[in-house]
Amino acid sequence: MKKVIRSFGYAFKGIGYAFKTQLNFRIHSVATLIAAAMGFWLRISTAEWLWIILCIAIVLLTELLNTAIETLTDLVSPQYNEKAGHVKDVSAAAVVVSAVFALIVGMMIFLPKLCLLFCHAA
């Protein structure tokens, strides 16, 4: 049981490292809070919550993996290396793909509800 508890400690240490050192992870964390607040405010359905939670998980997961890949790449290739640059670029591209997906899903869920709220009020 101690090993399991210790492994969670390492995981939270990794999240803390990403939060402290990665601006984009902090930005995605704030976006997570905004999406959750909007979900509660707009009373989205269970199915919509599942999509929002999936998007949050995918974006944070890709950001964490990107951080790990960039850190490892810097360790094994401290000097400039074109292939190391490609590794980091592709890793960052994965984050962009997931973030664009999340943005599209968020727009599909939140924009109609916001329009109903504000367009009919005008």
SSE map:
Blueprint: H1 2-21, H2 23-42, H3 46-76, H4 82-119
Pfam families: DAGK_prokar
Membrane topology: Multi-pass membrane protein
Transmembrane segments: 23-43, 49-69, 90-111
CATH architecture: Orthogonal Bundle
CATH class descriptor name: Mainly Alpha
Query: What general outline do the C-alpha atoms trace?
Result: globular
Work out the count of structural domains: 1
Note the beta-strand portion: under 5%
Summarize the structure.
The chain is mainly α. It has a single domain, classed as Helix Hairpins.
Describe the model.
The chain is mostly helical. The chain has a single domain (2-119), classed as Helix Hairpins (Orthogonal Bundle), CATH 1.10.287.3610. 89% of the residues lie in helices and 0% in strands. It is built from four helices and no strands. The chain has helices spanning 2-21, 23-42, 46-76, 82-119. Helix 1 packs across helix 2 (23-42). The longest helix has 38 residues, at 82-119. The chain is globular and about 60 Å long. It starts with a helix and ends with a helix. It is found in: Cell membrane. The chain crosses the membrane at residues 23-43, 49-69, 90-111. Its main location: membrane. It is a multi-pass membrane protein. Keywords: ATP-binding, Cell membrane, Kinase, Lipid biosynthesis, Lipid metabolism, Membrane, Nucleotide-binding, Phospholipid biosynthesis, Phospholipid metabolism, Transferase, Transmembrane, Transmembrane helix.
